[in-house]
Amino acid sequence: MTGLRKEFPRISVKTLCGLFGMTPQAYYKKKKTLVSRRQIQDTMLSFVQYYRSKAPGIGGLKLYNELRSVYGSGLIGGRDTFLNLLRSRHLMLPPKKPRHTTDSNHLYKKYPNLTKGITAQYPNHIWVSDITYIWIEGGVCYLHLITDTYSHAVLGWVLAPGLQADYTIQALEQAISESGGGNLCGTIHHSDRGSQYACDAYVNVLTGHHIRISMTESYKPTDNAVAERMNGILKCEWIYGMSLFKDEDDARQQIAQMIDFYNNGRPHMSIGMKKPMDVYYGEVPGKCMWKKEGKKRADDK
């Protein structure tokens, strides 16, 4: 005894292990495994925090695949174990609320589909219009598009904070300006049945240029296939592989570069590896090179 301090006898690791039916070798191996696993988890969580700082909306499966590509599956372990780790640290993203760009529950006139069985034969024969959402940090904005079916060229686009018809009309007016304006009686404008396309203001712009109005009659993506394909290319080849846009201005600047390359630099198999704007302004499109059998690859668009 030193003052009030009491000296307790030291017990060896061997003795303690014997009391619990364990060998010292098993104890040290277990201790090393626990420490190593904790270090691995700390590394994974640091990795998650880094990626979320760059792309707050990146999901658990994408994070897991990135971790495996960097550290290997042997070190990272199974997918479910990783996702359970995220859940235990409250790092799983909440389910995203579904966002709909089409509101067909309106009282405006709905027009018949004029594009059934028709293939575009020249520039400005059939335009397709669509709206798709673009995620940015802290929210979402909307890309309003007009695409020429014959050439696959994007003729008008507006990135906007909402779905209002004013923005859709701006994209339409860009397309009309690109086409030279005036009387476009040979043009069919095809869209879904959304209120943006059926409202009086939008219809007045179309009829003012003698553009015929066509709308889908169902909700199948194939009813507006060229527009859906354009959205898919934009997102799959560019946006999904990038960090989340910082804000609307950042998204607008980068999407402008994407669409410029899509129009002027990207060869399209559907027009014989020609560039959309070249075909739009007179170059004869080549033969469609899509594969007919089986599923088409993402780079065959």
TrEMBL record:
Domain Integrase catalytic positions: 119-284
Pfam annotation, one family: rve
PROSITE patterns from the UniProt entry: INTEGRASE
Swiss-Prot/TrEMBL GO biological process terms: DNA integration
GO molecular function: nucleic acid binding
InterPro entries: Integrase_cat-core, RNaseH-like_sf, RNaseH_sf, Transpos_IS3, Transposase_IS3/IS150/IS904
Protein name: Integrase catalytic domain-containing protein
